[in-house]
Amino acid sequence: MAKKEFKAESKKLMDLMINSIYTNKDIFLRELISNASDAIDKLHYRSLTDKSVKVKKQDFEIFISIDKEARTLTIRDNGCGMTKDELEKNLGTIAKSGSLSFKEEMDPKKNVDIIGQFGVGFYSAFMVSDKIEVKSKAYGSDEAYSWISSGVDGYEIKPCEKDGYGTEIILTIKENTEDVSFDDYLSDYDIQSLIKKYSNYITYPIKMEVEHRHLKEGTENEYETHKEIEVINDMIPLWKRDKNKITEEEYNTFYSDKFFDYEKPLKVIHTNAEGVVSFNSLLYIPSHASYDYYTKQFEKGLQLYSNGVLIMEKCGDLLPDYFSFVKGVVDSPDLSLNISREILQQDKNLKVIAKNIETKIKKELTTMMTEEKENYAKFWESFGMQIKFGIYDSYGMNKDKLVDLLIFPTSKDKDYISLEEYVNQMPEDQTSIYYACGETLDKIDLLPQVERVKEKGYKILYCTEYVDEFALKTLDSYQDKKFVNVSKEDLNLDTEEEKKALEKMNEENKDLFTLMKEEIKDINEVRFTNRLKTHPVCLATVGDISIEMEKALNAMPVDQKVSAQKVLEINSNHKIAKKLQELYKKDKEALKDYTKILYAEARMIEGLPIENPTELASLICEKLSE
Ligand code: ADP
Fold first, then answer.
1. Which CATH number fits domain 496-624: 1.20.120.790, 3.40.1190.10, 3.40.50.300, 3.40.50.10190?
2. 99: Cβ below 6 Å to ligand 1?
3. Total-model pTM
4. Rounded Cα gap, residues 507 and 483, in angstroms
């Protein structure tokens, strides 16, 4: 029988695929197993609707065998099989159905994921095979046919011998090359791993003859082997099982097996959604951030299955960035198996699933926050930063969704509080939400500015991460209460009388402050304040940039220097206030030195560097020796 040529575009496409070194070759097995499973599905369905079809569900199987000498890998199924015509029609053309657009998009220079894009499942086997033989007998027929091809140069169909109905695909595996060890596809172990990785949850048993080696009885170092047929796949995925019958242990084992995290997850979210788009999902909130979580290398995403067949290892479109810590799998019958990342992004069903998943995660986190405070605190310590990034990212586009997930410590004992709780606990006279920034909770607790606010009976949100203040600035307010940094110049904590008295005092000492300001260039103003209870000095800021923001922005790898507009505030009730007034009258030179020391103190308290520590040290010693 004469060799037939593939259709022109099929030829081009096949050529491209065979020579594409970028495509993940492993997936050919998944494609063939998935075809086998579809063929069994078809026959199964027929048996349910046509009494003359007599097959038993328990007999269905996919059998994989390896012949190392002959270099063949065989995938056999007892599904519907193909007639001669069907072999011709199905395997003679690549990408028959609806994907003719590939002609336009086929550009060999563009490293396109052809397999994914055009549904050329079967042909992916040419990536690993020199020759493919497909022997098939349609159910109910007694003629079997063989389709043979060595790739681009065409195929041949001829009658053959075959026991039983179904299809047998015999791949003659390529010889090793410098870059690729094709021998792996002839290794029992590697093939088993591929089955487990990509086809574990195919609902029919995938069987292999597995060799076992054990000590010969009565000997100490002599081994014997025996072969046994084993089912390699699990068949029923955990996510499709009844939630009520799954133990915590099963959930956790699945998690550690699949995501290589040996710490128990904080939360399992198992969903079976039926509706316009149906899907099962099994999501996990890890109990800690992986070592690469906050790095560029980290790639978010969920494993995506289409009816039990893995189609994507990490589907990033299923998770928003602010929930990128979530791990898990999604399985939906409403997604096509052969779909590329680019096409998937626009898939309507995928968007519905993603939205649904986001809602689930948020709901679960909200519940955890109110009902399992300890767990939520643990979660927060690992992933709170990501949520806060989410608030200020994209110009605050998602802030409303995330604001109620925020918690902050309100003291050095880490008493976490949500914004809602904060507002509910506000004394009647409090109008703003106060926060303070610093390196650690202890340091914030000792900030001079904190003291007075606390004394008023107001709680303060403690911000130790540089993203905190950016997030709060993005939010601007919560339930109409403005967020106010305790270091901001005017906190408005004083009574009218106190305010007036302070104003008067500042007015009277104007010349003193002018002189002091001359001594320190990078300061906007010097003045007395009421905000400090026992401490002598502090730095306040005017305008939008706080001292913590100055630190954060200057730590970023950009050239421009940012600087907060600082005000040196001196406690009007402290002894030092009087001392300065005295010096102004009696000893202006000493006043200058005092000013330098006070400013250095204020910077130190804020964790800002001292410009010239040596000079400062001498100056202090001089004063001490007087
Ligand atoms: P797809 O599976 O995306 O349709 P393939 O190129 O993998 O594309 O397969 C083409 C067609 O060949 C299938 O649609 C199916 O009709 C037929 N086919 C492939 N493998 C088998 C099999 N094991 N048994 C029966 N038919 C098969």
1. 1.20.120.790
2. no
3. 0.68
4. 30
